[in-house]
Amino acid sequence: MTVVAEIRRCRPLLGTLVEMRLFGGSERLRHRAADHAFDAVAQVHQRMSFHLPDSDVSRLNAWAHLRPVRVCPWTWTVLREALEISEATDGLFDVTVGDRLVGWGFLPRANRRGPRLRQRVSWKDIRLLPDSRVRFARPLSVDLGGIAKGFAVDCAVSALHEAGVEGGVVNAGGDLRAFGEQHLPVSVRDPEAPGVLLNLTRVHDEALATSGSYFSGSRSGTRRLSPLVDPRRRAACVRRWSCSVKAPRCLVADALTKVLLILGESAGPILDGFSASGYIVRGRGRVLSSEPASGSLQAG
Fold first, then answer.
1. What is the pTM (predicted TM-score) of this model?
2. CB within 8 A of 286, min separation 6: which ones?
3. 3-17, 210-224, 264-278: lowest mean pLDDT where?
């Protein structure tokens, strides 16, 4: 059996720990490449964080309903892809739910400089203009937390490719992407016992993202809340299961986990449209899975 040398690097970014495992090539090359990849992730964090008052997201939320706002091309690209996914999912994925997350305490109120929101908004109120400019049709609050982490992972993998790294995996708090020859096993937490890991699948030149509320849920009186918003009702989507999506890119996998959490087993046709696979983990080792072109999720 051939033992592949690897290095491991880890940094706190994107509100989580970003880990890189890199294989092949010289150790010096891999460390230099990891530095470039972490720089790319840090740029995404600086531009797309809801928490930073000078990020593109904060500037959009403050001013884009009044005038076009120029943003980083990466931010413009993520918004374009978010709108494409919103259209393909009939609005089940929607980045304009920031006001709900602020109201429920999952996002900070202090960093929102824009007006209070009084109208119902949706992804259709975002206008993408030439020269990386963005305009909102009315006051709204964009949160890219459901897609930017996946994009950051994709950017890190691109940086590693460009630097000549032969293979590896970038993992940002459960949103991961593998590249190269290795087939890497992936485990997820059991929703009913988060300290227990379940073997889920293997990834090879593809991405996998997972969403669940084992640690992020909260209560408001007798009502249970979660950082996942069902855009159809603008209400918290509280599930006792977790969802994972495997897709060619981590941005897509990241976004589609929210759709899978909302729709459950009926999300199969949407996953098919993105050449994605879905996994619903109901706890105690019970997993439902799908493969592309299945049209539904089958017991796995």
1. 0.87
2. none
3. 210-224
